[in-house]
């Protein structure tokens, strides 16, 4: 029986990137739908669950994507609510690549630092990748500083992390990045393209800083002095990763997550479960 991946994209045109990854992950057929919303997704879910018997539903899976992460989350939630009893298929949420990218970044940091009890700074923490990186760092027991030029936005991001990880230790701040960097052992920059948070001088003389990761691949980079291709390179005594340096692990995790959807009909791959899968790779 063929493995069918149903791609539900909130953008008008379903992502070609996601389709390529799905093919490389072993999907035999990909049914792609654009402009998907909570209001119109139910018939698509019914088409997924009523066409095969319960014993064969592991061969069908749903992947929710698109550039708008909040819209994707709303669709993902509606998909889960449409299932009932054994009539369900495995699902994955990765709008804008936010879950797989954040997971790959935190897993990279974890290779070099025992995160529990360490102070981690997330720049661009109010964005989709930064927010999820903060969640995963908190899950590992780090004290996480989340920044925004608006303290209200930083506090809102902190509240979302605590909602996902009740025991999280989160410090919201509107301090300038160079000031927020004080005492940080791990630094992850996940800002928008073209936003530079730190100059090379801002972070090059930080004895406590052990790992710095910049997820922006578009010049000017988020952290000056880190090349996009850096992968566990050492600069100024700090282990550094650039966007492409993290990207290989992100793509490996992305493909593994899609492949794992076909192992059963009841997998739910969200931020934490994608991260846990990454730990096993």
Task: Describe the secondary structure blueprint for this structure.
Blueprint lengths: L3 E6 L6 H9 L4 E5 L8 H8 L10 E6 L3 H14 L7 E4 L4 H13 L8 E5 L4 H12 L3 E5 L3 H14 L4 E5 L3 H4 L5 E4 L10 H4 L7 E4 L16 E5 L2 E4 L1 H18 L7 E2 L1 H9 L2
Parallel strand pairs: 1-2, 1-3, 3-4, 4-12, 5-6, 5-8, 6-7, 8-9, 9-11
Antiparallel strand pairs: 10-11
Helix pairs in contact: 4-5, 4-9, 4-10, 5-6
Report on this model:
The chain is elongated. It has two domains: 4-93, Methylene-tetrahydromethanopterin dehydrogenase, N-terminal domain (Rossmann fold); 100-246, Rossmann fold (3-Layer(aba) Sandwich), CATH 3.40.50.720. Helix content is 37%, strand content 20%. With 281 residues, it is α/β, with parallel strands linked by helices. It has helices at 16-24, 42-49, 69-82, 98-110, 128-139, 151-164, 177-180, 200-203, 243-260, 271-279, and strands at 4-9, 29-33, 60-65, 90-93, 119-123, 143-147, 169-173, 186-189, 211-214, 231-235, 238-241, 268-269. The protein is built from ten helices and twelve strands. The strands form two sheets. A seven-stranded mixed β-sheet has the order 7-6-5-8-9-11-10. It has a five-stranded parallel β-sheet with strand order 2-1-3-4-12, sandwiched between helices.
CATH-assigned fold name of the largest domain? Rossmann fold
* Elements, N to C (H/E): EHEHEHEHEHEHEHEHEEEHEH
Low-confidence stretches: none
Tell me the helix content: 25-40%
Query: In which order are the strands of the major sheet placed?
Result: 7-6-5-8-9-11-10
* Overall number of strands: 12
| Biggest sheet details | 7 strands, mixed
User: How far is the N terminus from the C terminus?
Assistant: 27 Å
Shape: elongated
Q: Return the average pLDDT rounded to an integer.
A: 97
Beta content comes to 15-25%
